[in-house]
Amino acid sequence: MRRPPSSHHHQNMLKKGPWTPEEDIILVSYIQEHGPGNWKSIPPNTGLLRCSKSCRLRWTNYLRPGIKRGNFSDQEDRMIIHLQALLGNRWAAIASYLPERTDNDIKNYWNNHLSKKLRKLDAGLDSQHHQLTNSQSNIPRGQWERTLQEDIQMAKQALHAALSVDHYSNPVINTNSNSNLLIHHHEPLIPRPPSAASYASSTQNISRLLRGWMNQESRRSGHHSYLPAAWSMANGSSPSEDHEGTLSYSSYSEVSQPEENTIGQLTPETHHSHCRDHSMAGMDLHDHEAPALNLIEKWLLEEGGLPTADDLSLL
DNA sequence: AAAGCATTCAACCGCGATCTT
DNA sequence: CAAGATCGCGGTTGAATGCTT
User: Fold this and answer.
1) Protein CA A103 to sugar C1' C10 (Å)
2) Which of A175, A200, A247, A304 is the most exposed place for a label (fewest CB within 10 A)?
3) Which stretches are tagged as biased composition: Polar residues (predicted)?
């Protein structure tokens, strides 16, 4: 849809531009068999005229089950705002706290919506003669404070929910090594939950997938998440357009069955798992206590560490 | 109604990190 | 261990789409 296929490609040349449904099917069925990862082996084995990088991207940002697109909730908004204030533009790290969202999606959403929203808010406050501009010493007051308190509550809840899903026995000190960045001592990068690891299996999923595409093709308006819908149908969850309003990580819980290795961000080889049983959607996540409070959560809980207006108006 | 401008977002690129040989 | 291959991230692009004039 976006980006047209590269105009000239000799036989051997790799295709670029948007993925077609046919290509998606090929990719998905291959990954069903072999698991995600090993991207370099995909083009030769499937005949896809795509580079491995493109395959990975397509999978992780679009085809992978358990991802939600569009319709960001207020809670998600706030969580993203907070996390970005804390972490900067480290979208992958931020995304690890929002298991249903991809880093790309969050990044896009930030750039297109949130940063503007914040700028506007900031400007509004500015014109209200509020000088919140020295970064170090100011404690947010009044409106800001109230808002932030609420936000922190939200984020805290969300974080609890997110964390409580995995029962990591060990707290994963294995920090990911981009510690050369801004906020070195908080290296909260928890492993991306294994939601990406599981994928629907069985061929009927693919036919459902296709149906989703059909629908999509017929009315190419609205940015619906037709694909995840198709997946969730395939996974046995309610076929209704479940853009669940309240912050629920249900689709995460459907999908994730953390068992074996939980370290690091999905090491592909371990994901030949046959996660067919995604039926734990009813599980009440909110009542679980997070096993490992990490630094972010501490930060969220602390009063002193509130993000400043400056923090929030970055960019 | 159509032309021009703005927004959206899937996909690309470059590069540093990590893995493999 | 070096060198090359691959992965993963973040910034950026640009056609499609939406909006305004």
Assistant:
1) 10
2) A304
3) 247-268
In chain C, which nucleotides are within 7 Å of a protein Cβ?
5-18
A257/A198 Cα distance (integer angstroms): 8
Per-residue pLDDT of chain A (315 residues; tens, 9 = 90+): 444 443 333 345 788 889 999 999 999 999 888 888 888 889 888 889 999 999 999 999 989 888 888 889 988 998 999 999 889 999 999 999 998 899 999 999 999 888 887 777 766 666 665 444 443 334 344 444 445 445 555 555 555 554 444 333 333 333 333 333 233 333 333 333 333 233 333 333 343 444 444 444 333 333 333 333 333 333 333 333 333 333 333 333 333 333 233 323 333 333 322 222 222 222 222 323 333 334 444 454 443 334 444 433 333
Report which of A6, A92, A95 is spatially closest to residue A49, judged by C-alpha positions: A6
CA of A38 to C1' of C7 (A): 10
The ranges assigned to domains in chain A are 1-63, 69-315
List for chain A the helix, strand, coil content (%; round to 5): 50, 0, 50
Determine the distance between A40 (CA) and C4 (C1') in angstroms.
Answer: 15
CB under 8 Å to A56, separation ≥6 — which residues? A36, A39
Residue numbers in A 58-97, CB below 7 Å of strand B: 58, 61-62, 69-70
pTM here is: 0.56
Please give the class, per CATH, of domain A1-63: mainly alpha
